[in-house]
Design a protein that fits this description.
Elements: H1 3-8, H2 14-22, H3 36-54, H4 56-62, H5 66-69, H6 73-86, H7 96-109, H8 117-128, H9 131-134, H10 138-151, H11 159-167, H12 169-194
Length: 197
């Protein structure tokens, strides 16, 4: 899953949100440097990622990107899932996506002092370009694919990914529809377990 999904699956808790959003930037035992609930958010993120990778719908979605990107196919599917989540009226009815995006940035800003350096460097761009909100647009996904390729050591172009996204849009929507209720239920159970005595 990508940034919007991890924010959404933090269920409105600020410290869980921080952990969920920074997890990819915190390696090994460095998670122990964080407050307990941020650590729990880091672990929730990792549980979500494992569940996502193993889900049958994700395996299907990866097939559309694998001919071009092989082991990196999952990274493109993560972004695709954010696109369909952003457009999901059950998750964000009306204009709630805009409000949710702004609230997420504001909560992260409150924890600037503990954000990993690479995430802290990225956050102003995320806010200025409103990544979370703009995942709903095809051009937002095109930009996200391009950014993914720029940051990757072994990829050189994003056009094939966007072509696959466009060509298989209906099938990818079906993968999201089959997948997201399952990951939401799994993440909610994990979230509840964080606060269970």
């Amino acid at each position: 899953m990508n940034y919007l999904a991890h924010a959404y699956l933090s269920f409105g808790h600020p410290e869980v949100l921080v952990g969920n959003m920074i997890s990819d930037f915190v390696k090994g035992r460095k998670k122990e440097n964080y407050a307990t609930l941020i650590q729990k958010g880091i672990l929730l993120h990792r549980s979500i990622d494992t569940f996502t990778d193993q889900h049958v719908a994700t395996r299907t979605a990866k097939q559309y990107f694998r001919p071009y990107y092989r082991l990196y196919a999952g990274a493109f599917v993560d972004i695709v899932y954010d696109h369909f989540l952003a457009r999901d009226a059950k998750a964000f009815p009306g204009e709630q996506l805009m409000a949710f995006s702004g609230q997420t940035y504001a909560q992260l800003d409150l924890y600037q002092a503990v954000l990993p350096e690479r995430f802290s460097f990225m956050l102003p761009y995320m806010k200025a370009q409103n990544w979370l909100y703009n995942y709903q647009y095809r051009w937002g996904i095109q930009n996200s694919f391009a950014g993914l390729v720029r940051r990757a050591a072994y990829m050189t172009e994003s056009a094939p990914a966007f072509e696959a996204f466009e060509s298989h849009y209906k099938q990818l929507q079906e993968c999201y529809d089959a997948f997201f209720p399952d990951v939401e239920q799994m993440a909610w159970s994990g979230f509840q377990a964080i606060f269970r005595v």
